Amino acid sequence: MSNTESGSAQATPEPAKLPTAHGESHPGYPVPLTDESYKIPKSLVHGSCHCKAVTFTANVSLDPDMICRCNCASCVKNGKRSYLLLEKDFNLLTPSSIDDESVIHTYLYGRKAVKQQHCKICGVYLWGIGARPRWGNEIMLGLNVNTLDDIDWSDKKWRGGEGGFYLDGKGDFKQGARTEPFEFGFW
């Protein structure tokens, strides 16, 4: 997919299509949010990896209570805190495709239900992509909050370990969400 239409230098980029890993969905991914939680006010923010080879915009709530921490091995090892976004709330600017293997590395493990993606150049963990069966397998993106640019997190309550919610990714997301970490999770 191209970010610009031919003949139009200022064309609005189309939202990137977020494929699930191998076209499959995981029966329990993700389960924590209610339909109401997606109606809270959102802000358009810009984000990138460290080297700026991957850039994007996203509509996210800057409420620290909407930050997710998962206890699966990948999220723990990456120190990931994420916003769970619907496909319509994410727009990849560069590269032109989320599957551009010259810039984005995809890592699959276990059941291969979630695509874990990193910048191939600087190594920054970007996001995880999976389907949410509760909403007709709608594609969801777990966006690493640390990739958001120009946001001052110093006064946010999650900085001290408060706020946000936890997922039991190690247990296939079957236990939903809660305010304390699951086994092997971090505060």
From TrEMBL:
Pfam families: GFA. Residues 45-154 form the CENP-V/GFA domain. It comes from the Eukaryota. Residues 1-26 are annotated as: Disordered. The keyword Transport does not apply. Keywords: Metal-binding, Zinc. Coiled coil: none annotated. Residues 1-11 have a biased composition (Polar residues). One of its GO terms (molecular function) is metal ion binding. InterPro entries: CENP-V-like, CENP-V/GFA, Mss4-like_sf. Transmembrane segments: none annotated. The keyword Metal-binding applies. Belongs to the Gfa family. This is CENP-V/GFA domain-containing protein. It comes from Ascobolus immersus RN42.
